[in-house]
Design goal:
Elements lengths: L5 H6 L2 E3 L2 E3 L7 E2 L2 E2 L1 H13 L8 E8 L8 E9 L3 E10 L2 E11 L41 E8 L10 E8 L8 H7 L17 E10 L11 E11 L2 E9 L5 E11 L2
Antiparallel strand pairs: 1-2, 3-4, 5-8, 5-11, 6-7, 7-8, 9-10, 10-12, 11-14, 12-13, 13-14
Helix pairs in contact: 2-3
InterPro entries: ACOT8-like_C, Acyl-CoA_hotdog, HotDog_dom_sf, TesB_ACOT8-like_N
Protein name: Acyl-CoA thioesterase II
Pfam families: 4HBT_3 (PF13622), 4HBT_3C (PF20789)
């Protein structure tokens, strides 16, 4: 079966009443649900659909409330359109039940005395010369959605390796050039890394992201050849719940996005 690109999913959304309905191809699956970055990309696409006047996305809050196991219909509503910020709420429904929600704040650039960013860590090599995140003998990624991305390991350990550190840094890009430099592409790839707690664990177990906060620090998602440097770091974990920070830089070292995610791990 031919893999379906995210660009194709967005382009072929059908209207379900006044809201778009998106397909969930098998190659975007993560266990019994859709990959979280894919769901986030659908939510922000629905928020921007038929609203070409919106300024750049500045912040997003995404909640994963139930498995997105089949085609969701995504409703959107403008909560407030202010002079500087427009806030839009989205709601993904399957059979009338909520599976995910998103709140997106779009805003115009402002004059500011601040120009501060978290400097990108040095990378020993560029993405072309960095080894794959996956062992060479692995013919297909262990989680289905990874087929949509190229992922190179810069620093950190693989999942379930018993590391003393919950940290991973990578180069990553979409295999489909149509998603390079797009907002939906950035949201999708921003969730590509496994939970930051996984390297410290010694065995797998069921897990699920509960929510994801993303602050976007640029007017655009542009980067050379589609590559982003990304890192995730565990900040705390106990009782089956973990918190992690996540950062994204373009190939020039400019910070593009900064985020935090709450993940439940049943192991």
């Amino acid at each position: 079966m031919t893999d379906v690109t995210l660009a194709e999913v967005l382009a072929t959304a059908e209207q379900d009443g006044t809201a778009p309905r998106y397909q969930v191809p098998e190659n975007w699956a993560q266990g019994r649900t859709a990959f979280g970055g894919f769901t986030g990309a659908l939510l922000v696409n629905a928020a921007r659909r038929d609203r070409p006047e919106l300024p750049a996305l500045r912040s997003a809050l995404i909640n994963f409330t139930a498995p997105v196991s089949q085609a969701p219909t995504i409703h959107s509503e403008v909560l407030r359109e202010g002079r500087n910020i427009t806030t839009i709420a989205t709601r993904a429904e399957i059979d009338g039940k909520v599976a995910a929600t998103g709140t997106f704040s779009f805003g115009h650039a402002q004059e500011s005395q601040l120009n501060v960013g978290h400097t990108a860590p040095a990378a020993p090599q560029g993405p072309d010369d960095t080894p794959s995140y996956f062992p060479p003998a692995l013919k297909r990624p262990p989680v289905r959605f990874f087929v949509n991305f190229e992922v190179k390991l810069i620093e950190g350990s693989l999942p379930f390796s018993g590391s003393d550190r919950g940290y991973v840094r990578i180069w990553a890009r979409h295999r489909d050039p149509a998603m390079w430099g797009t907002l939906e592409g950035l949201i999708a790839i921003g969730d590509v890394l496994p939970p930051a707690a996984f390297p410290m664990m010694t065995r797998p177990g069921p897990n699920s992201s509960m929510n994801w906060i993303i602050n976007l620090l640029s007017d655009h998602a542009n980067t050379r050849d589609g590559w982003y440097m990304m890192e995730t770091q565990l900040t705390a974990g106990n009782g089956g719940y973990s918190s992690q920070v996540m950062r994204v830089w373009n190939t020039d070292g400019d910070m593009v996005a900064d985020g935090m995610q709450s993940v439940i791990i049943f192991a």
